[in-house]
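User: Please run a holo structure prediction.
Assistant: Happy to. Please share the sequence and the ligand.
User: Here you go; the ligand is NAP.
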Amino acid sequence: MPSTLPLLDGRTLPALGFGLYKVPADETQRVVAAALDAGYRLVDGAEFYGNEREVGEALRRAVDTGLERADLTVTSKFWGEQSQSADAVRTSFVASEAALGSPIDVYMIHWPRPARGQYVDVWRELVALQAEGRIRSIGVSNFTEEHLRRLIGETGVTPAVNQVESHPWLPQHELRAFHAEHGIVTQAWSPLGRSRVLEEPTIQRIAAAHGVSPAQAIIRWHLQLGGALIPKSTHPHRLAENLDVDGFSLSDDDLAAIAALETGERTGTHPDDRQ
Ligand SMILES: NC(=O)c1ccc[n+]([C@@H]2O[C@H](COP(=O)([O-])OP(=O)(O)OC[C@H]3O[C@@H](n4cnc5c(N)ncnc54)[C@H](OP(=O)(O)O)[C@@H]3O)[C@@H](O)[C@H]2O)c1
């Protein structure tokens, strides 16, 4: 069972989950079933991924065959490209809940879309949904320190989680320090740099020295930073491999060598650029 991290709302979050972006709908049930069989207990989904109905079907089958729903953490995110009104938030939330056929444990704002200037209003609606008991934990994704300061300053409610791009090229040390100061869990998306960071010779050397794969070395690095992460794979053997990271530990020298890989390069969009 993956270890958990405490959330500021008193709940906990599995440190290691799995992601579902770009998992085709017709493969999703198989992938979710394989991940749950491997031992994952956090499913990172979103309205935008277009596969929530299939995630829900896989969860239902797993619960029917003995898995405790209470042991699972199901995540979804408000996309908000068309509208950021309170009604739009509520409509999207209800649609995701209906597609999943299950309560949503962690609901996030997918992108701040700062040029629209509405993320504080969107956040107020998440706070309201949580107060109504509809969502266990509320968080954000792709928020910078500036966005977080505004959110916290104007509402007094701190997100439990900020899901951001992070991998050895983009460790996000400053943002992680801000999160630590405010009790926010950092959850890394594209934690393997969409597989591109696996090619780094330093990562391959460290992995070989520990007798593990490059993916396992990077996942271990994330966990030793104290954060959460959600690597994606559609292959059952990789899902299992990515979870099997407790049998070794990176040394200070390994961590220093990985720190030297920081370039700031992103594999995805900058938070200020998506509108
Ligand atoms: N909040 C956001 O804005 C946002 C943005 C992007 C992603 N996300 C979330 O983060 C999750 C992960 O990010 P991601 O999918 O972009 O990138 P990622 O997890 O860094 O990388 C996924 C890639 O790595 C490969 N891979 C996985 N395990 C491997 C292993 N052990 N050995 C070799 N290759 C391996 C996968 O290939 P195969 O599938 O072929 O195995 C896939 O090509 C997403 O699924 C989504 O849930 C969130």
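The radius of gyration is 18 Å.
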